[in-house]
């Protein structure tokens, strides 16, 4: 396969279904010696309070209504989290930027190149059709890194990019139930959450939803409800 082949693919008309099948095949039967990586950005993430669950201890013997701290919205400039996910292993990589620009995207691709390592013979990068993802700078990057090939998902098919469900995991680990006063705090939270995820990662399998089962504890069975018998 020639370097850079099908770098920028059309997304409309009769080519929509072949593209969808190509992305699915990369997830289910990737070529030998290759790495499939899903790329995207999350944001803009503002420095503010993010809702979540928090335990409220009673202040006295009488039960009192829990109060929420007044939030005045953003407290600093917003930023973006650029992410890469290898579905086969679940390994993830994130970098934060203040803006979503072509220059930052190319810088991010260079860091992903180093993160993947030299052992992969071919890198298939799944991304959406955002303008910064398929311009001339991306073409030049692909020419400078011949093992890379970009596979662009069809429009209105974000579900084809497996990093989308992983963003929910990262938001839960890094943002949920926390208050941020500066963008640097979000950057640190995203880095810590990514490290935690990589220490407990699991693969993202196409077409199969991972279910987390709560382990059963041995004990005395609950008595039957007589009213329902």
Textual characterization of the structure:
This protein is an alpha/beta fold. It is built from five helices and five strands, in the order H-E-E-E-H-E-H-E-H-H. The chain has helices at residues 16-28, 102-116, 136-144, 163-174, 183-199, and strands spanning 34-45, 79-85, 92-97, 122-127, 148-152. It has a five-stranded mixed sheet, sandwiched between helices. Strand 2 (79-85) and strand 3 (92-97) form a beta hairpin. Helix 4 (163-174) crosses helix 5 (183-199). The longest helix is centred in the C-terminal third of the chain and has 17 residues, at 183-199. It is globular and about 45 Å long. It starts with 15 loop residues before the first helix and ends in a 30-residue tail after the last helix. The model is unreliable at 1-17, 210-214 and 221-229 (pLDDT under 50).
Low-confidence stretches: 1-17, 210-214, 221-229
- Percentage of residues in helical conformation: 25-40%
Helices, by number, come to 5
Spatial ordering of strands, largest sheet: 3-2-1-4-5
* Main sheet summary: 5 strands, mixed
Compressed to H and E, one letter per element, the order equals HEEEHEHEHH
N- and C-termini, Cα separation: 68 Å
Proportion in β-strands: 15-25%
In round numbers, the mean pLDDT is 79
Evaluate the radius of gyration: 22 Å
Shape: globular
């Amino acid at each position: 396969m020639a370097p850079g082949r099908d770098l920028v693919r059309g997304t409309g008309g009769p080519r929509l279904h072949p593209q969808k099948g190509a992305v699915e095949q990369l997830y289910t039967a990737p070529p030998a010696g290759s790495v499939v990586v899903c790329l995207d950005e999350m944001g803009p993430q503002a420095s503010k309070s993010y809702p979540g669950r928090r335990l409220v201890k009673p202040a006295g013997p009488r039960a009192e209504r829990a109060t929420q701290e007044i939030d005045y919205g953003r407290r600093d400039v917003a930023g973006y989290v650029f992410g890469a996910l290898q579905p086969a292993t679940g390994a993830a990589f994130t970098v934060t930027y203040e803006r979503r620009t072509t220059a930052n995207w190319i810088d991010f691709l260079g860091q992903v190149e180093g993160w993947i390592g030299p052992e992969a013979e071919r890198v298939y990068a799944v991304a959406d059709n955002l303008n910064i993802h398929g311009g001339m700078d991306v073409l030049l990057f692909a020419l400078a890194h011949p093992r890379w090939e970009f596979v662009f998902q069809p429009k209105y098919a974000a579900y084809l990019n497996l990093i989308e469900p992983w963003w929910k995991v990262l938001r839960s680990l890094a943002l949920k139930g926390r208050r941020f006063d500066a963008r640097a705090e979000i950057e640190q939270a995203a880095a810590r959450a990514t490290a935690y995820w990589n220490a407990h990662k699991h693969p993202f399998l196409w077409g199969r939803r991972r279910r987390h089962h709560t382990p059963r504890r041995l004990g005395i069975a609950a008595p039957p409800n007589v009213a329902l018998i």
